[in-house]
Amino acid sequence: MEYPSKLIEDAVNEVAQLPGIGKKTALRLVLHLVKEHQNKTQTLTEALRKLRANIKFCKTCHTISDDDECSICHSHRRDRSMLCVVEDSRDVMAIENTAQFRGVYHVLGGIISPIHGIGPSELTIDSLTARVANHGGEIKEIILALSPTLEGDTTSFYLHRKLKEYPVKITSIARGIPMGGDLEYADEITLGRSITARILFN
Hints:
globular, 2 domains
């Protein structure tokens, strides 16, 4: 792709490194910023600078936070007997948007993936086991809410093996057919799990 300016080319190359953004989308965004008033670009730049300089991770659950402890861990209205283990902060936001879970979280910071060089030591698994061990029976259930992939299942199996010595119930999120989905388009594993994990109709 030919660029009218080296500055445009450099900006496009940087923006295109963001996940889910190709060169064409990056070019469209860069040209949009060029057309906007300079104050808007400076506001965006300042917001990103503050993000990198000031963002923190909760000392308890490791989710993204403005403070040393996130609002969920700090809240006295959360059910601390239920601990939901997720891959990253996006999963916390997704579950919170359902308004169906009132427990607390633990963010692993990824999942075990030997192909990508991610082992248990790169995740917050030690922090999780210490959290369970140090809370003297306060945690009654650990919900493994990891993606239904080979890496997600590998991580779940590893966590189950690490946590089974503690007196807690270990569960995983249900997997099945999405609302509005057709059975003929479901993959065999999802359909099979939907059959075996069937629930009472009422």
